[in-house]
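Working notes for the structural subgroup meeting. M.R. asked for a predicted model of this chain before we commit to crystallization trials. I am recording the input and output together here so anyone reviewing the notebook later can reproduce the run.

Input as submitted:
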Amino acid sequence: MPAPDFPADVRQRLETDAREIIARYPGSRSALLPLLHLVQAEEGYVSRTGVRFCAETLGLTTAEVTAVSTFYTMYRRAPSGEYQVGVCTNTLCAVLGGDAIFDELKEHLGVENGGTTEDGKVTLEHIECNAACDFAPVVMVNWEFFDNQDPQSAKRIVDDLRAGRTVEPTRGAPLCTYKETSRILAGFPDERPGAVEATGGAGPASLAGLRLSRGEALPGSGGGVPRQTSAPPGDETPPAHASSHDAPQESAVSDPDHPAGPVTEQRTNEGEGEQ
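Returned structure, recorded in token form:
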């Protein structure tokens, strides 16, 4: 049975948006990912109707579109909540409390992984690393960051979302619905108040290398920057490097208990003694 079509007015609006998206790419097929976000912004997930629209618009088969939409976890395959609440359960977040947060939210909301509350407000899922390890454990709501969470603070977030109260991310842009997020991911302007001015930020650990490369002091270093060891006067040996991976040394230097002798010379001498 073929998938139903969008209503005429919705399809016309989507076709207008799709033309704008496709014009950004040298080949129309390259527009598939943002087009999937576009149809997801319409229905809250990628439906059979959305797959059909993408296929017809790009000249692809529905099988080709389905293969892509089911590969990426940011595309929903069934109706879900207005707010996608993701708890990072990757290694660092997990050991710092992410697993406990996820388990308590499942019990608090009465859903399992991927489940949606009866009021249709919240879908709960565990997510992989979102490159925010400096702020672990991290909870994401529609891909906005809520840093340094614990079970109680996470439960307050979902309770406020379900009650319609304002919830402010720890950093970044103001929170919006999942459909609105999908439209932004499709490549359309982010019209949330303050979204242009809002900026995220990496933590001190992530920025340490950048600061050192600029010759800046690290927090807590007393104003000093670690320096490379200088060579003795007259010694042409390059200064010691901070990382043995970047500048490996002889094993006799790195491991004095197991020095590496002149193996080649020793074998040569032994060979000469036998002659």
